[in-house]
Amino acid sequence: MTNNPSLNSVTAPGIPAARTGEPTFRYDVAVVGLGYVGLPTALALHKAGKSVLGLEISCRRLDDIRAGRADLLPSDNDRLAGALDDEHAFQMTTDTARLAEAATVLVCVPTPIDHHLLPDLKPLAAACVDVVAHTVSGQTLILTSTTYVGCTRDFLVEPLRRRGLEAGSDIFVVFAPERIDPGVADHAQADCPRVVGGVTEQCVAHATELLAACAGYVHPVSSVEAAEMTKLYENTFRAVNISLANEFADISRGLGVDIVEVIAAAATKPYGFMPFHPGPGVGGHCIPCDPHYLLWQLRADRVHAPLIETAMERVASRPGNVVRRCGEVLSTTGTMLAGAKVLVLGVAYKPDVADVRESPALEIIDRLRAAGATVSYADPHIDLIDTADGELTADPAPEATEWDLVLVHTLHRGADIAWLERAPVVLDATFRLHDLKHRHVL
Prior knowledge:
Elements: E1 27-32, H1 38-47, E2 52-55, H2 59-66, H3 74-84, E3 90-93, E4 102-107, H4 122-134, E5 140-143, H5 151-162, E6 172-175, E7 194-198, H6 201-211, E8 218-221, H7 224-255, H8 259-266, H9 290-300, H10 306-331, E9 341-345, H11 360-370, E10 374-378, E11 384-387, E12 390-393, E13 405-408, E14 426-428, E15 439-441
Helix pairs in contact: 1-3, 4-5, 7-9, 7-10, 10-11
């Protein structure tokens, strides 16, 4: 199934003919994109003894990596220091032509959505153009970026065929979705199984040889399409259940029941239940984005998925519900939202990461300002954010101001929040501050 309006951009003119003869590869693997997925993957492969070439089009990102400013777990920071000292087996470049030097090319670029909740395929399309242009016979190409079902064939297999390279014989093509949980040390990449779907069994065998070096084990599936759908199912499952948890939190508040206690009690059941927790919304590169790749594809075929559609509508509406709740809580003190001094505590999309991609906090701040509130934020990991009204700098000393309302959006490990006891009104969107005075929940 192919419904990709950006597909023509992959078959750019001027792509050179396939090379002949057996190439000599300088690197075991080239990782395309050194972001929140690509960099930890490159470091894990280097740690496993592979020679790695990192390709990143952003010079600023490369400068940050070389200066040790990348947002990584402490263990990965140690790995990065070791990799940067190993010039023979770890190098980084902006030169796409050097992809021909690697036996395997791993594509780890973002697949975001736009303001209309439609897939933005431009980063992936551009990366695949470069990969196709510089592919040589004998290479293995692994697409890891979450996308629609059929994308691997559309963006890699067919363009390569037009170059005279046949997947399964000349080159080896698979889809192996990434499974990295940024900022969570307990979910180590080396412990996590890796799903691999290839164009042929030989493709799977070639990819497994590399991925087994940095995964708990490799789980093969019958096709690239099955692997693509696996990733969509994983994150749609999470989106639906988070939406359900948020709804139960709203219901429980209305009935005077503690939803955290309810979830903990339900989680004692040893089968048939998996705990999901409510919050101010969902952010990051997966849950708020990936299901829209599936819905976009289904709409083109006039196929409806009402449960998923409703869940994603609820996900999208959560920041607006948070702002309405801010108004309700302020009204209990006789204060209107318009003119109120509001602090948003924590704007990262999850604890202990310097990442605001799709963070609900950004929309919440814009909506609070649109309602007339004076809004500031504090976050030890985020110095500056972009808002609808321009850049906003973090308040370095939020405890020194008398706020009408503090909205606790993200709690980072080790953060000093003792001063919240002095705040007149706190809206706890984390559902974690059980003993806090003047606390309200969403």
